[in-house]
Amino acid sequence: MTNSLNGTTDQNDRSWQNEYLKNALQKGVVKVKFIKKDGTERNMLCTLNPDLLPAQVDLEESVQKKTPNPDVLAVYDVEKDGWRSFRYDSIIGFSDQ
After folding, report:
1. Mind listing the pLDDT tens digit of every residue in the chain (97 residues)?
2. Which of 15, 17, 31, 42 has the fewest Cβ atoms surrounding its Cβ within 10 A?
3. What is the spatial order of strands in the sheet that 91-96 belongs to?
4. Phi, psi of 23 (to 5 degrees)
C-alpha cells in the first residue's frame, strides 16, 4: 500500500497527492485505506473509470445543485456496487490494483 498521503502537512503536497489519486481512480481500480468517521479502518476497492461505472440515472434537481465539498471524494465501490465517499485527510494509503 502506498503511503503517499502520510506525514505531510504542506497543502501543495496534499493537493498534488489528491490529484494523483483521482487520476489513478479514473484509469482503473484503486485500493484505498482510510479511517471512517466512526474511527474504524476501511479498505475499499474503488474507481472513477467511466468504463467501470454503472449507467447514470437522472437525479432530482435538488441533488444536482448540491455544492461539491473539495475535502471529500466520491468514488464507486466496486465490491459494494455503490457510491461511497471519504475525506482526503482520512486516507492512510492507496495502491493501484
Report:
1. 544 444 444 556 678 899 999 999 999 999 999 999 999 999 999 999 999 999 877 666 555 666 889 999 999 999 999 999 999 999 999 998 8
2. 15
3. 82-87, 72-77, 41-47, 29-35, 91-96
4. -65, -40
DSSP 34: E
89: Cβ contacts below 8 Å, ≥ 6 apart: 71
Residue pair 43/95 in contact by the 8 Å Cβ criterion: no
Dig out the grid coordinates for 56 from the structure.
447514470
**Distances 33 to 7, 48, 54, 64, 67 between C-alpha atoms, Å:** 15, 16, 23, 28, 26
Whole-model pTM: value is: 0.80
